[in-house]
Amino acid sequence: AQSVAQPEDQVNVAEGNPLTVKCTYSVSGNPYLFWYVQYPNRGLQFLLKYITGDNLVKGSYGFEAEFNKSQTSFHLKKPSALVSDSALYFCAVSPNSGGYQKVTFGTGTKLQVIP
Amino acid sequence: DVKVTQSSRYLVKRTGEKVFLECVQDMDHENMFWYRQDPGLGLRLIYFSYDVKMKEKGDIPEGYSVSREKKERFSLILESASTNQTSMYLCASSPTSGSVNEQFFGPGTRLTVL
Hints:
heterodimer, A: mainly beta, 6-stranded mixed sheet, 4-stranded antiparallel sheet, B: 4-stranded antiparallel sheet
């Protein structure tokens, strides 16, 4: 069975500092990997995805994520955090094996950017 | 822009009532999904549909049913609401083209069952 682990319930970072939100996954074969963000009282918004190719994926709002196959990780990063980045972040995985495959979400990490 | 709308933002129902949650998407997506979101548990898939009148169980289908009579509309039904179904319900849609695609989410319905 596939799974996603987001080991930190909350990450605090000062405005202007780099941020990292961690994600590790387990799936049979190669993965599709996603990051979503949820602002208060809103649905989830897609940030970025990894399908194949370059291990560094760039997404919306200056976010990027690095795929590391040996460590089965897909950490979300941003060089300089903004207060407006404060939100709930979800990592998700699906097997890359043809046809529609179920997407499994992590439990979420709350990012708090401190002014 | 893709727009996914849900019929209610907030809903309060009593135990035993039949509850309908409606979801409509305007981008002609083949796939539609219902999730529930609970603190510490993330998103859990209830049901999904990859075509009109087609449905597949997700991870937690017990106590729920779904209906998809038209491509743009996907309904979640709680036949007899219980207090443990108090949750945030999120609808999503995605196209079918090549790889697994990102999902587009509605704003959510916060359901309280008393």
